[in-house]
Design goal:
Layout lengths: L7 H25 L5 H22 L5 H4 L1 H23 L10 H29 L1
Length: 132
């Protein structure tokens, strides 16, 4: 396997749900902290989306194997999220984004984001299976 081996079919199948899960995770967090504005939401969301788009293809999140196995689809999403969350926290540690790179938030984002992505991937697999 090459370092970057994304399958376009996997991208089409999973990327919309993955981005929806990340967006919902960030929206829930932003609402829970009582400071929802479009600008703040975008500022909090951007590092996580960038982290996902940069890391997931290299971590196997869109590898051919995620199309062949439910387990692979879920495990590669979790592995991708670990790297994406780490990159997002590094970005949040700069003055360009709201928040900071708090280790506790890294763990919370890791846990909640993992749940959101696993639910989204599982839902995508179920919907596609019923349609196909």
């Amino acid at each position: 396997m090459e370092l970057y081996d994304a399958d376009p079919r996997a991208v089409v199948r999973f990327l919309p749900g993955d981005l929806l899960a990340i967006s919902a995770f960030v929206l829930a967090g932003t609402l829970s902290h009582g400071s929802l504005t479009a600008q703040r939401y975008a500022g909090v969301l951007l590092p996580f989306v960038v982290g996902w788009i940069v890391v997931a293809p290299f971590a196997g999140g869109y590898d051919t194997r995620v199309l062949e196995s439910t387990r692979a689809a879920l495990l590669y999403a979790v592995a991708s999220w670990l790297g994406a969350d780490f990159l997002a926290q590094l970005m949040r540690g700069t003055p360009f984004f709201p928040g900071n790179a708090d280790p506790q938030f890294f763990l919370v984002a890791l846990a909640v984001g993992t749940v959101a992505l696993v639910v989204a991937r599982f839902a995508t697999l179920v919907v596609v299976d019923f349609r196909g």
